[in-house]
């Protein structure tokens, strides 16, 4: 998943002002009528519903808006440069090269100006009439300075260039977290209509999957966050690149597999990574879920469940295969997301 890119953006340069004169009978030069140059195009970011990743910017990293054109005769203004609109998905955070915050684009239609186009230069039509001294074809020496004044024009303003970072953070109500093979993808497929890839090996999910859960008149977006491991907050394994995706969630559904030899340790491992990444993330409401209870006998289930009871940790036993506990889990998700 492409969820972090650095771009170089350049607004359009302003067009130069024009030097032009009206043609009047009996005068080699009529009054100046050079128009202004056109303004350079601006650069904007705009949120679209048609994107879910930053894939369009995986290879192309530099973009430029159109320059304004030179002014024309008869006080005609040059053509303004076309603005450049770069589309981004909802949940895109924008910072500059110094990591200073620019914008948080969360809603479709959100739009932010990133680089302002240069202003078009003024043409010689702006020369004051009092400075215009031409009466015939003979120019007195002392009037040469005024003649030069008539050829005055402004060059267009240079464009703005800026480096920015786009960072995508998924917009989901609930984040499914846990160690690899905790059963997140299977659970997501049962709670929602999503169809993530599911297999019995670590890191099956290498990018977040989204699904929508409908329950008791409510609609919640659930994100299956790729398996976290010890050291993830420091970039180990699939790294902290995925932890950013749970920052916007309202509640975390923390999955622990009943297959684990030490399920309480697994729980604490992930909680530790959340805390080291962000105190705010660690303080989000969590639902602890014991998964895959269908694959163990009653005695082993009781043994694993008792480990949580001893630590006074409330946990919901579930099986995505048999459906046991899923109704209670849906209720808990709705309750904690309100």
TrEMBL record:
Binding residue positions for Mg(2+): 185, 205
Quaternary organization: Monomer.
Family matches, as InterPro entries: G_OBG, GTP-bd, GTP-bd_Obg/CgtA, GTP1-OBG_CS, GTP1_OBG_dom, GTP1_OBG_dom_sf, OBG_GTPase, P-loop_NTPase
Domain OBG-type G: 172-338
Region spans: Disordered: 22-41, 66-88
Residues binding GTP: 178-185, 203-207, 224-227, 291-294, 319-321
Pfam families from the UniProt entry: GTP1_OBG, MMR_HSR1
Function, as annotated: An essential GTPase which binds GTP, GDP and possibly (p)ppGpp with moderate affinity, with high nucleotide exchange rates and a fairly low GTP hydrolysis rate. Plays a role in control of the cell cycle, stress response, ribosome biogenesis and in those bacteria that undergo differentiation, in morphogenesis control.
A GO molecular-function annotation: GTP binding
Magnesium among keywords: yes
Protein name per Swiss-Prot or TrEMBL: GTPase Obg
Gene3D superfamilies per UniProt: GTP1/OBG domain, P-loop containing nucleotide triphosphate hydrolases
Gene symbol of the encoding locus: obg
CDD domains referenced in this protein's UniProt entry, alphabetically: Obg
GO terms under biological process: ribosome biogenesis
EC number: 3.6.5.-
Compartment annotation: Cytoplasm
GO CC, any one term: cytoplasm
């Amino acid at each position: 998943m492409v969820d972090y890119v650095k771009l170089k953006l350049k607004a359009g340069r302003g067009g130069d002002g024009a030097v032009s004169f009206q043609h009047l009978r009996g005068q080699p030069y009529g009054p100046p009528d050079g128009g202004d140059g056109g303004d350079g195009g601006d650069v904007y970011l705009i949120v679209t519903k048609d994107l879910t990743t930053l894939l369009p910017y995986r290879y192309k990293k530099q973009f430029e808006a159109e320059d304004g054109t030179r002014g024309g005769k008869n006080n005609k203004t040059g053509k303004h440069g076309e603005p450049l609109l770069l589309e981004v998905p909802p949940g895109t955070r924008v910072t500059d090269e110094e990591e200073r915050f620019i914008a948080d684009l969360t809603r479709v239609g959100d739009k932010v100006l990133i680089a302002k186009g240069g202003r078009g230069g003024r043409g010689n039509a702006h020369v004051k009439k009092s400075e215009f001294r031409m009466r015939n074809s003979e120019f007195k020496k002392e009037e040469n300075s005024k003649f030069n004044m008539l050829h005055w024009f402004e060059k267009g303003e240079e464009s703005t260039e800026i480096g920015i970072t786009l960072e995508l953070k998924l917009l989901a109500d609930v984040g499914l977290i846990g160690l690899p093979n905790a059963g997140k993808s299977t659970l997501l497929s049962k709670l929602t209509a999503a169809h993530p890839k599911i297999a019995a090996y670590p890191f099956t999910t290498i990018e977040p999957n989204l699904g929508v859960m409908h329950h008791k008149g409510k609609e919640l977006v659930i994100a299956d966050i790729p398996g976290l491991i010890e050291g993830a907050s420091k970039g180990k394994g699939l790294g902290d690149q995925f932890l950013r995706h749970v920052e916007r969630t309202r509640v975390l559904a923390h999955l622990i597999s009943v297959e684990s030899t030490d399920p309480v340790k697994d729980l604490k491992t992930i909680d530790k990574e959340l805390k080291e990444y962000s105190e705010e993330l660690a303080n989000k409401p969590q639902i602890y879920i014991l998964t895959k209870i269908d694959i163990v006998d009653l005695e082993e289930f009781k043994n694993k469940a008792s480990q949580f009871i001893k630590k006074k940790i409330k946990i919901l036993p579930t099986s995505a295969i048999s459906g046991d506990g899923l109704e209670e889990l849906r209720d808990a998700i709705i309750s904690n997301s309100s």
